[in-house]
Design a protein that fits this description.
The chain is mostly beta strands. Helix content is 3%, strand content 43%. It contains two helices and 39 strands. It starts with a helix and ends in a 10-residue tail after the last strand.
């Protein structure tokens, strides 16, 4: 059985969502009253539908709501529906995405008929997260029409590249790759949001820079480059076994991979004469030859991100210059390289909850950032302090806030947005020094961070959504040492 592109992306997010009800958002998440959910207003008796498949864990009277329904979904998240005047489902029933579960009312503390929709990342959470980005990640944008299939699939954002990388398989399990002196090593979660396999040595280029991207059918593809060669390998089926390494080009300095809006993977690699790229000629298909990009910083660190409209953007940094280029149309050609700042040590790029890109770069006096003020304009560089000449990575918290992690030989530290699309906290200690760092998101929304050193590969993960575990080996062994 094959996995459709939309289904593979939805699986990685947790599940494919359905529209909960018609109407408009009359009271958003947060705000002055710290509203814990969203209110969707519509006429009395409007049908309410299950956001996704799951089990009904509450159905009946509830303080403030009058009546409520709560559904536990396979990825561990809970959706909560309140103020209905009629319920169709009872505790213990299994429901499917889009199934009618209630009729809208104004029971409890309500000024008029509406659905109060709350989302919790697990049953232990007391405070909900914003349902709007939660639904958008699963293919639903409010306002919506129940019964219609989700519109365009959510954007597939590039995975952080470097000597250690992690990405989610189509079934939601994280996989991690680390490049040592004896080639590339690989470990994977044995269950979604769970523990890890032992390290497996895959061979391939020694001391490589790595990138990972999903094919349109959900199969992950990994790319490795060192000074002598570029190679790649890919899953034979979604979430399944991997091919052997295959030649993909001559050597280079850094590699990044992203997915076009039409599902085609595009790969960029830097070398001594600039930056080159290569792309799939069709989704899940063969590749173009390597093509020059018209320049780019030689020997640079290359990172990719996706603009809000689905166009890929590339950022490349070496010790003397920083440049970027971008697709001039979705799935289309590329701009000329543009200056983006002075040189530095490393770069990470992420996107705000509203889609605007945010770029962080490290150098000898700390970490600076720059962010889109509109789809076509950028702020000036602003200092954040932080570890000098550090390796950088970033990811988004469950409620859509960007979090940035930095490591150098003496320390690890992180900062985070204090609210969605907002300014950042001060840098906070995150661990001792190391050599490389990358962050990935579990299927339940918790960030997991992998850090490397001469001793091997450690990881640290969110135990809630503001608390962290201690650093530990990924499994019972250290993994490859990385200098």
């Amino acid at each position: 059985m094959t996995t459709s592109p939309a289904a593979a992306r939805a699986q990685a997010a947790g599940y494919a969502a359905s529209c909960p009800t018609t109407g408009f958002i009359s009271d958003p998440y947060g705000g002055a009253r710290d509203h814990d959910g969203i209110d969707i207003a519509a006429p009395h008796g409007t049908p309410i539908h299950a956001v996704g498949d799951g089990e009904v864990i509450n159905s009946g009277p509830a303080d403030g709501y009058g009546q409520w329904i709560r559904i536990l979904h396979p990825d561990g998240t809970v959706t909560e529906y309140g103020h209905m005047y009629h319920r169709d489902v009872a505790v213990g029933e299994r429901v499917t995405a889009g199934q009618r579960i209630a009729l809208m009312g104004a029971e409890g503390q309500a000024d008029g008929p509406h659905l109060h929709l709350r989302v919790r990342r697990d049953t232990s959470m007391r405070h909900g997260i914003d349902p709007v980005p939660y639904l958008a990640e699963r293919g639903v944008t409010i306002p919506c029409t129940p019964g219609r299939r989700p519109g365009p699939p959510p954007l597939v954002y590039p995975v952080e590249s470097g000597r250690v990388v992690s990405a989610r398989s189509a079934d939601g399990r994280l996989e991690v790759f680390a490049a040592g002196a004896d080639g590339v090593h690989h470990a994977w979660q044995t269950q979604v949001n769970g523990g890890w396999s032992e390290w497996e040595r895959l061979g391939g280029p020694a001391d490589a820079q790595l990138a990972v991207a999903p094919n349109a059918d959900g199969r992950l593809e990994a790319f490795a480059v060192n000074g002598d060669t570029v190679q790649h390998r890919y899953q034979l089926t979604p979430s399944g076994a991997w091919s052997d390494w295959e030649d993909f080009g001559t050597g280079g300095s850094s590699v990044a991979a992203g997915v076009n809006a039409d599902g085609r993977i595009e790969v960029f690699a830097s070398g001594p004469v600039g930056v080159f790229h290569r792309y799939q000629t069709a989704p899940n298909s063969g590749w173009s030859t390597w093509e020059p990009t018209g320049g780019g910083p030689a020997g640079s660190r290359v990172k990719m991100e996706k603009a809000p409209d689905g166009r890929l953007e590339v950022f490349a940094l070496n010790g003397s210059t920083f440049q970027h280029l971008y697709q001039t149309a979705v799935n289309g050609g590329w701009s000329q390289w543009e200056d983006f700042g002075g040189g530095g040590h490393d770069v990470t790029v992420d996107h705000n909850a509203d889609g605007r890109l945010e770029v962080f770069a490290s150098g000898p006096v700390g970490v600076f950032h720059r962010y889109q003020t509109s789809p076509t304009s950028w702020s000036e560089w602003e200092p954040t302090r932080g570890p000098a000449n550090s390796r950088l990575t970033s990811d988004r918290t469950a409620d859509g806030r960007v979090e940035v992690f930095a490591i150098n030989g003496e320390t690890a530290a992180h900062i985070w947005q204090k609210s969605v699309n907002a300014p950042y906290s001060d840098w906070d200690e995150f661990g001792t020094g190391g050599t490389e760092i990358t962050a990935a998101t579990n299927a339940d929304g918790r960030i997991e961070v992998f850090g490397t050193s001469q001793a091997g590969v450690h990881h640290k993960w969110q135990t809630g959504f503001s608390t962290w575990s201690k650093w530990a080996w990924v499994n019972s062994t250290s993994g490859p040492p990385m200098t």
